[in-house]
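Saturday, quiet lab. Running sequence design on the C-alpha cells for the scaffold JK sent over.
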C-alpha cells in the first residue's frame, strides 16, 4: 500500500471503481473526487450539494448516485462531470446506496429508512423495513434478492425487490456497518469489535468468522529486550550447601530484616506492638521502652516493628542516638530526622490528604492572610485569561502583573502546606552563638515554633500516629542519655506521638543517676550522723531511686524481650524450626521483590500489548462516535443554512449552493503517511500512542490498588468493649484515678493486640488472589488472613480484672465467689454473656504475655 494525493482535507466515506482505471470517492462537505488513472491523480468534481455524502454507487462507467446527510441524493449521467440533486422525500441521513442495474436501486439510512427507485432515481418511494434501527449498508445480488445491515446486529433481507423485508438472525449485538454478497447465497457482513459474519445459504444462517490479529514487528522485537532485562533474574541459583559445623551457623551481629530467619519469635511481638500502636483507642502521647540486655535483640525487634508499621501506611522515624552522640546538639539532629522521615511526599495520595488536613488545621489560624493570598492568585488567573487586556496598558504590563500575582499567591498559599517552616539549623546557629540574650531568644522562638508545627503535623497524620524510634540509647554517654530523654519529653509534650526507646534498663538508670549525683549527694548530706561509707552507699541508692522515678514518669510501657527458650536456642544454632504452612502469597511476593527485573519486564510487555490491543479495539468506536457527532452537527446546520423559500413556493426544492472547490496543496506540503507493514493506519497512529501511554500508568495504578492493605488502623473488638462495660463496676474500685485507668487499659489493649495472631492482619487483594489461585491449583486450602479470633478478648478483660486477686497465678473462681459476693455476680454475668470463663490455657498465655510488659 502506498499513499495517494487526494487534494482535500475532507473526511472521505466511500469509494467505488467502475473498472481498473475509473473511480470515484465521496465524503463530508459534499466532496466528490474522480480518477481515470487508477488513483495516480484525483480531481475534484462539482457536486452541487449542500450536505456531506456518505456512500456512492455506479451502474456502468457513466451513471452513478451518491447519498448523504438529511436525505441528500445526487445523480450523474456523464461519469460525474455534472451532478444534479434528486428528491428523496425524507430528511433522514442516508448511509448507503446500491443499484442492481441502471434503473433499479435502493438507499438505506437512519431510523430504518429504505428508499427504492425503478426509474434511475427520477422518483424515490419509501419501503417498509419493520424496524427503527439505523441501517448502514445495503447490497443486492440481483434485482430481487437483497440485504441491509445496521445497529445491534440488525440484518434485513428481501426476495421480492424490497416489497417486503424480513429480519434474519445474526447472532450478535455488534453494530454492523457493511454487507456484500458475491451471489445469491454467499456473503459477508462486518461491524464493530472486529465482527465478521459469513453465510453460504443466503443469510438463513450467519456464522462468526474466527481470525487472529497479530501485533506489528516492533512488538516482537520488544520481547527480545524484555528477555535481556529479565535474564539476570532467570539464571539458575546455586544450591545452598548445608553447614557442616556450628561455626557455619554464626549470623552477623545486625538487626533482623523483614525476611530473615527469626528463631526468637520477635516477629510476633513486633506484630502485636504494631497493632497496639495502630489501634485507634491507643491514645498518644505514649512512650514505650524495649528493654533487654546488650545482644538480646532490641534493635531487631525495633526494626521488625518499624517494617510492620511502614507496610501498614505508617511513616515511622528512625534515630540512632549512638551515631550522633558526638554532635553538639542532639535535639537538632533528632528534629531534623523527624522533618525528613515523618512527612509523606506530596506526590502520593497520603501526602495530598496530609496537606489538605494541614491546611484545614492551620487555615482558621491565619484566615485573613490565606483569603488575601487566594484572592491574589485568583486575580492573577483572571488577569492572565483576559482576552484583550486593558486598552491603556502597555503590552508587557499585563503578563508581568499576572505573573507577579500568581507567584505571590502561590507562595502565600504554600506556606500553610509546609509541614515544618523552621529548620533545626536555626537551633544549631543559636547554640553556636553563645549564651547571649539574642541567642536565647532565638532558641526559645525556635522551640515554640517547632512545638506548634509539630502539633499540627501529628494531628494531620491522623488516623495514623507518628512513631519515633530511638535506638542504642544505652550506648551513649550519661550526659547524652539525659539530653535524649529531655528531647523525648519535649516531643510528647508538643504533640500526639508514640516514642519507642531501645535500652538496657540498668545502664540507662545508672546514666540518669550519674547526671543527678550532686542532687543525691546533697540529700544524703542533710541526714545527720551518717558515716562516710554509709553515705556513699546511700548516695548510690538515692541516685538509683531518683533515676527510677525519673524514668517511671517518662516511660509509660515497658516491653521486656524474653530470654530464649531451649527450643529457640536450638533453632538459632541449627537454623531450623517448626513452621506452620505459609500461604503461597508470601513466597510469591517475596520472589517478585527478588526478581524485580522480571516483574518490570513483564509490566512493560503487558503495557505495550495492552496499548496495542486497546487501540485496535476502541479506535473504530471512537471514530464512529466522532463521525456521528459530525453527522449531528451537519443536520443541525441544515436548518440554519437552508435558503428560505419565497412565499407561495411551497414544495419547491431550494436552489443548491455550490460548494467551493478546495484549494489543492503543493506536493511538498502533503503530509507524509508512509505505511509500515503491521502498523495501524496513519489516521489512527495518535490513538495508538495515547492508549500505549495510558496503559503503563493504568497497570501501575492497578498494581498499587492490589498491593494496598485495606485497613491499616485497628479497632477494639465489640467483645472487648462490651466486657469493659460489664466489668466497669469492679474496674473503677481498683483504679480510681484517670492515670491508673489509662494504664490499666493500655495493659489490657497490649495483651489483646499480642493475642491476635500474625495471620489476623487483613491481606492485600493481591495476596488474596494469589492464595485463591494456588488453592484452586493445588487443592490445598490455606487459612485466609483477615478474620482474627476475637472471642478471647472478653476473657482478656476478665483476667485483667481478676489477676490482682490471684497474686500472679490462676484465679480459683469458686474461692473468689466465696470471698467476694459482688465479684461472683460479675462472674455469673460474664458466663451468661460470653458463654464461659477463661480456661487454664487462657490464664497461662495471659501471664506469659504480661511477663513481657510492665505498665507505668
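Result came back. Writing it out in full:
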Amino acid at each position: 500500500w502506498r499513499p495517494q494525493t487526494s487534494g482535500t482535507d475532507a473526511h472521505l466515506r466511500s469509494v467505488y471503481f467502475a473498472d481498473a482505471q475509473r473511480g470515484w470517492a465521496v465524503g463530508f462537505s459534499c466532496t466528490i473526487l474522480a480518477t481515470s488513472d487508477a488513483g495516480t491523480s484525483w480531481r475534484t468534481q462539482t457536486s452541487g450539494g449542500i450536505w456531506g455524502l456518505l456512500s456512492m454507487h455506479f451502474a456502468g462507467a457513466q451513471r452513478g448516485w451518491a447519498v448523504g446527510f438529511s436525505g441528500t441524493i445526487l445523480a450523474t449521467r456523464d461519469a460525474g462531470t455534472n451532478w444534479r440533486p434528486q428528491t428523496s422525500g425524507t430528511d433522514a441521513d442516508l448511509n448507503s446506496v446500491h443499484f442492481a442495474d441502471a434503473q433499479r436501486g435502493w438507499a438505506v439510512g437512519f431510523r430504518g429508512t429504505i428508499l427504492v427507485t425503478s426509474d434511475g432515481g427520477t422518483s424515490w418511494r419509501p419501503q417498509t423495513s419493520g424496524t427503527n434501527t439505523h441501517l448502514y449498508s445495503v447490497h443486492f445480488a440481483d434485482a430481487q434478492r437483497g440485504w441491509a445491515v445496521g445497529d445491534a446486529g440488525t440484518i434485513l433481507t428481501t426476495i421480492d425487490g424490497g416489497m417486503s423485508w424480513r429480519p434474519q438472525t445474526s447472532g450478535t449485538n455488534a453494530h454492523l456497518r457493511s454487507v456484500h454478497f458475491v451471489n445469491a447465497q454467499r456473503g459477508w457482513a462486518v461491524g464493530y469489535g472486529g465482527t465478521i459474519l459469513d453465510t453460504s445459504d443466503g443469510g438463513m444462517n450467519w456464522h462468526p468468522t474466527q481470525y487472529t490479529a497479530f501485533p506489528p514487528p516492533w512488538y516482537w522485537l520488544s520481547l527480545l529486550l524484555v528477555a535481556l532485562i529479565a535474564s539476570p533474574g532467570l539464571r539458575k541459583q546455586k544450591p545452598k550447601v548445608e553447614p557442616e559445623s556450628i561455626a557455619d551457623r554464626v549470623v552477623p551481629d545486625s538487626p533482623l530484616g523483614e525476611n530473615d530467619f527469626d528463631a526468637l519469635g520477635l516477629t510476633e511481638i513486633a506484630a502485636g506492638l504494631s497493632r497496639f500502636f495502630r489501634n485507634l483507642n491507643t491514645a498518644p502521647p505514649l512512650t514505650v521502652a524495649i528493654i533487654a540486655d546488650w545482644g538480646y535483640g532490641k534493635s531487631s525487634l525495633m526494626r521488625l516493628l518499624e517494617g510492620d508499621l511502614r507496610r501498614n501506611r505508617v511513616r515511622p522515624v528512625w534515630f540512632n542516638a549512638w551515631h550522633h552522640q558526638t554532635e553538639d546538639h542532639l535535639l537538632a539532629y533528632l528534629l531534623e530526622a523527624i522533618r525528613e522521615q515523618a512527612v509523606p511526599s506530596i506526590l502520593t495520595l497520603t501526602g495530598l490528604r496530609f496537606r489538605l488536613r494541614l491546611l484545614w488545621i492551620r487555615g482558621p489560624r491565619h484566615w485573613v492572610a490565606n483569603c488575601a493570598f487566594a484572592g491574589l492568585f485568583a486575580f492573577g488567573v483572571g488577569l492572565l485569561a483576559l482576552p484583550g487586556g486593558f486598552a491603556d496598558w502597555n503590552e508587557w504590563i499585563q503578563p508581568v502583573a499576572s505573573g507577579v500575582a500568581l507567584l505571590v499567591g502561590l507562595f502565600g498559599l504554600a506556606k500553610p502546606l509546609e509541614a515544618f517552616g523552621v529548620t533545626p539549623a536555626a537551633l544549631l546557629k543559636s547554640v553556636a552563638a553563645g549564651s547571649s540574650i539574642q541567642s536565647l531568644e532565638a532558641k526559645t522562638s525556635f522551640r515554640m515554633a517547632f512545638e506548634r508545627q509539630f502539633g499540627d503535623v501529628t494531628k494531620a497524620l491522623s488516623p495514623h500516629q507518628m512513631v519515633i524510634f530511638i535506638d542504642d540509647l544505652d550506648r551513649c554517654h550519661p550526659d547524652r542519655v539525659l539530653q535524649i530523654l529531655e528531647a523525648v519529653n519535649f516531643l510528647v509534650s508538643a504533640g500526639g506521638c508514640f516514642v519507642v526507646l531501645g535500652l538496657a534498663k540498668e545502664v540507662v538508670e545508672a546514666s540518669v543517676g550519674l547526671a543527678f549525683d550532686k542532687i543525691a549527694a546533697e540529700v544524703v548530706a542533710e541526714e545527720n550522723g551518717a558515716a562516710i561509707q554509709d553515705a556513699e552507699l546511700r548516695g548510690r541508692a538515692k541516685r538509683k531511686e531518683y533515676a527510677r522515678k525519673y524514668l517511671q514518669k517518662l516511660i509509660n510501657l515497658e516491653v521486656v524481650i524474653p530470654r530464649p527458650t531451649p527450643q529457640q536456642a536450638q533453632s538459632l544454632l541449627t537454623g531450623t524450626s517448626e513452621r506452620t504452612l505459609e500461604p503461597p502469597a508470601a513466597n510469591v511476593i517475596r520472589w517478585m521483590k527478588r526478581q524485580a527485573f522480571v516483574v518490570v519486564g513483564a509490566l512493560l510487555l503487558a503495557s505495550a500489548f495492552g496499548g496495542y490491543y486497546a487501540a485496535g479495539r476502541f479506535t473504530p468506536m471512537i471514530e464512529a462516535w466522532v463521525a456521528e457527532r459530525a453527522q449531528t452537527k451537519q443536520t443541525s446546520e441544515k436548518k440554519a443554512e437552508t435558503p428560505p423559500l419565497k412565499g407561495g413556493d411551497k414544495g419547491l426544492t431550494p436552489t443548491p449552493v455550490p460548494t467551493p472547490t478546495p484549494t489543492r496543496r503543493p506536493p511538498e506540503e502533503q503530509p507524509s503517511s508512509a505505511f509500515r507493514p503491521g502498523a495501524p493506519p496513519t489516521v489512527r497512529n495518535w490513538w495508538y500512542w495515547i492508549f500505549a501511554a495510558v496503559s503503563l500508568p493504568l497497570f501501575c495504578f492497578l498494581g498499587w490498588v492490589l498491593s494496598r492493605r485495606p485497613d491499616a488502623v485497628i479497632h477494639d473488638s465489640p467483645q472487648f468493649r462490651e466486657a469493659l462495660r460489664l466489668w466497669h463496676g469492679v474496674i473503677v474500685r481498683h483504679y480510681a484515678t484517670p492515670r491508673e485507668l489509662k494504664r490499666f487499659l493500655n495493659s489490657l489493649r497490649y495483651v489483646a493486640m499480642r493475642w491476635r495472631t500474625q495471620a489476623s492482619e487483613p491481606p492485600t487483594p493481591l495476596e488474596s488472589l494469589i492464595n485463591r489461585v494456588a488453592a484452586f491449583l493445588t487443592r490445598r486450602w490455606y487459612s485466609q488472613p483477615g478474620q482474627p479470633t476475637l472471642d478471647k478478648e472478653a476473657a482478656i478483660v476478665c483476667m485483667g480484672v481478676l489477676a490482682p486477686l490471684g497474686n500472679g497465678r490462676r484465679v480459683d473462681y469458686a474461692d473468689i465467689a466465696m470471698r467476694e459476693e459482688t465479684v461472683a455476680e460479675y462472674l455469673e454475668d460474664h458466663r451468661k454473656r460470653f458463654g464461659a470463663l477463661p480456661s487454664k490455657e487462657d490464664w497461662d498465655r495471659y501471664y506469659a504475655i504480661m511477663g513481657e510488659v510492665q505498665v507505668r
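Notes for JK: DSSP finds 25 helices and 26 strands in the chain. The radius of gyration is 42 Å. Ask whether to fix the surface positions before the next round.
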